[in-house]
Amino acid sequence: MRFIAALAAGILAAFLATGGALAQTKWDMPTGYAETSFKTINDRAFAEDVKQLTGGKVLITVHPNAVLFKMPEIKRAVATGQVPIGEFFLSAYGNEDPMFEVDAIPFLIEGYDGAWKLYQVQKPFLEARFSRQGLRLLYSVPFPAQNFYTVQPLTDPAQFKGLKFRAQNPVVSRLAEQLGAIPVTIQQPEVPQAFLSGVANIMMTSTALGVETSAWEYTKYYYVTNAMYVKTAVIVNERAFKGLPADVQQAMLKAAQGAEKRGWEMSKKNESDGEKILASKGITVGKASPAIMEALRKASGPLVQDWLKKAGPDGAALVKALR
Description:
Elements: H1 2-17, E1 25-30, H2 38-53, E2 58-63, H3 71-79, E3 85-89, H4 111-132, E4 135-142, E5 147-150, E6 164-166, H5 170-179, E7 182-184, H6 191-196, E8 202-205, H7 207-212, E9 221-224, E10 231-237, H8 238-242, H9 246-280, E11 284-287, H10 290-322
Parallel strand pairs: 1-2, 6-7, 6-8, 9-11
Antiparallel strand pairs: 3-10, 4-10, 5-8, 5-9
Helix pairs in contact: 2-9, 4-10, 5-10
């Protein structure tokens, strides 16, 4: 009995000495973005907030650069429980459900205020879809506005014809076709080599990706359109979430609210800072020509109608609420 009592006392002492380490839950969180991306920085801040708010009961390790799973694999990895939490590019799943891709439609909204309004209208529909898949939305943050990066000057819509247009989601692929370009699917880590090898020669993306991939090494021009603000989503496996104590669940949700607010502010700052960096590195930064803007707006109309046909009553309700 003395031996058992001593052993129990030793285990308790070791538990207390490690700050309750035996009660810790350790989660791995994959993301496809670079170590220096504001997305990854925000995710790490979220993980730190979770640690602090739970008293160290939940430790989240963020794995950037798609080292655990490639970006197209992350959502499924969370849904199947391979990892409990992850971040993925929302509109890349437009073929799965049109509600995931609405933020990729050009000129459906304008500016960050419009992007926030769209998200608030879209959010209940996203939550319902994730719930049916055994997932929970924690937070969603936009990239800065999607603008053109090109190898050659772009001033006339006729120049789109035959260009190899990097398409990161189904809507951008259809946009490229509307403009007369050829869509090519290229994941973020492969973008520089794709341009250098001639696989792509135009893309529509944010300052964030441009800076992270040193766009000045493979493109020469950056044209501002502010056409759309596409988002990523951080999701958690609902079963894993419900397996946490109630107070820990609430702490994680509080951390997620903070991450969402912080992430939107980081996105705005990234946009203004990013354009200055691109210019300082030798990229010609300017506004898209009126003719290019007119072509984009003209292409947006059919994209909205196509999306409404696919999205059904939910899509109609979203657009009505948005307008």
